[in-house]
Amino acid sequence: MYQYICIMEKDIENKEWMTEAPYLAGLSKGNQFSVPEGYFETLSDRIQGMIALDSWKIEEHEIGFTVPENYFDELSTRIAVKVKVKSESKIHKLLYSNFFKYSAAACIVLMSGILLYINEPARVSEKTAYNEMVTDQMLFEIDEEMIIDHIQQNETKNPGDDVSDAELENYILNNFTQSDLISE
Amino acid sequence: MKQVEDSEILEKFSVEKTRNEGFNLLLQKYQQKVYWHIRRLVIDHDDTDDLVQEVFVKVWKNLEKFRSDSQLYTWIYRIATNESITFLNKKKQRNNVSLDDVSSELAETLVASDYFNGDRIQTKLQKALLTLPDKQRLIFNMKYFDDMKYDEIAEITGTSVGALKASFHIAVKKIEAFMLNDDITF
Rounded CA gap, A35 and B52, in Å? Predict the structure, then answer.
């Protein structure tokens, strides 16, 4: 009964597409591919050979190498010993390395100081040139008449106008020697 | 010759002493089915031969974990399908070619093969199949050639029955149109 139902289901499924593709439905479904002679007779042997090879690889003789007896049992102990020896020798090394570390740091600071000193005038002149350029640019952008008015206003009032001749004479005598005045 | 039941194969395989005998029965029952399933997908005999061996090595390794909630043959077909699709994807990546180029490469393999004896119409049908995407071709093969039910195909491909029906319907229409196109001749 179950088999009969399955066949019925398949028929219904197939009828759906067969009505839509009558040409395809009419074609032979025979297998057009072939295999070399005797292929299937040897296939299971070759598959079992592959399985044997695969198991052999996994189990022990991976790529033909072996290890001495109890090698892996003693391996962790030997690694622990080597790690201990290395960490001790590292302490000595650190003592020496501190000296080199501080020397190197001192050299770097010294070299940086010298380089800074040598390059300073150049940097100052660069700064000055940059400031002049900015000022020129600002003046260029200000209206010419405004600049002329500003200069004229400043010219009318001299900084020395408020000071009397006697006060000036006293100031010169107090602050400059005779040789200074002669050289001027 | 009476075909051995899957339950008998599994029973023999579960016992250490009869494991090889059980596996041998499995090979006798399924090796040809698996071969043709893969061959229709990858076309070339040598590629199929490699894949069949890989599939059965996987079956051997994992049969112990097989749960009887699915049928043995759908489980084996699933492994074979996954291996074949992976192989085709790797082939595309290795050759750095598009899907269309792989199809034409497979079509060339088909024509040049010593192991394809199809006439003009059968060659045209195979070439029409190679125009389909891999998964659609897989579904078409299982429905058209293997006469499988949608439920079984769904279990193998992990796709819903509705999606399978739609995919097969589209594939049939494409193949029919290709076959009726007289401009395509060989």
Answer: 13
